[in-house]
Amino acid sequence: xxxxxxxxxxxxxxxxxxxxxxxxxxxxxxxxxxxxxxxxxxxxxxxxxxxxxxxxxxxxxxxxxxxxxxxxxxxxxxxxxxxxxxxxxxxxxxxxxxxxxxxxxxxxxxxxxxxxxxxxxxxxxxxxxxxxxxxxxxxxxxxxxxxxxxxxxxxxxxxxxxxxxxxxxxxxxxxxxxxxxxxxxxxxxxxxxxxxxxxxxxxxxxxxxxxxxxxxxxxxxxxxxxxxxxxxxxxxxxxxxxx
Length: 243
What we know:
Elements: E1 2-12, E2 15-24, E3 29-35, H1 39-46, E4 57-60, H2 64-73, E5 78-81, H3 83-87, H4 91-102, H5 109-113, H6 123-133, H7 137-152, H8 158-172, H9 178-189, H10 191-195, H11 197-200, H12 205-221, H13 227-239
Parallel strand pairs: 1-4, 4-5
Antiparallel strand pairs: 1-2, 2-3
Helix pairs in contact: 4-7, 12-13
């Protein structure tokens, strides 16, 4: 079971470069790193790795480049869309709607609480949020859709999730908001990958942790010019648990 994600490496001549991180989600270990995130770069650096046919599950964010790479590089693997990235799909729309109302991105604590899971908030905080949203119809609808996505991920079992997801898509089709329609199109493209989460429950939480370790290594060295040196340093740090 492989986890695949990327993080920032450096900016050279105005071009942003990324590093792709591969982790073993069953053994909770770093597996490999590659320079770049496009299909050609990954294939060139990893094509000599043996036993690719033994990979059964790959967890990725909702990146079309990663999806096409996984389908070709791991022929027997199924793809799972990472739960965290699905939940945060509507976050930029909520932040933009708040910016359109107030003229800036940062505002009172109430607006920041809109991004929290409603079930984790106290009763009085939920009342405060509802009072705030009464005067902002668009923001209110986006917030309710965010909560419906959270409710969807609280479902247990693949069959129930499949039925609930189809109902969610049908309900979203009736929304007048363009932001919701865009989200609907994304959900349709990634329907099978999203639902596979309910078959095995894998997420990229450990991969994100390894990304965080890589960023700490970068800060400690004030950045790296050589990807080769950076790769060796991160692999030694993660594999031998010196962090």
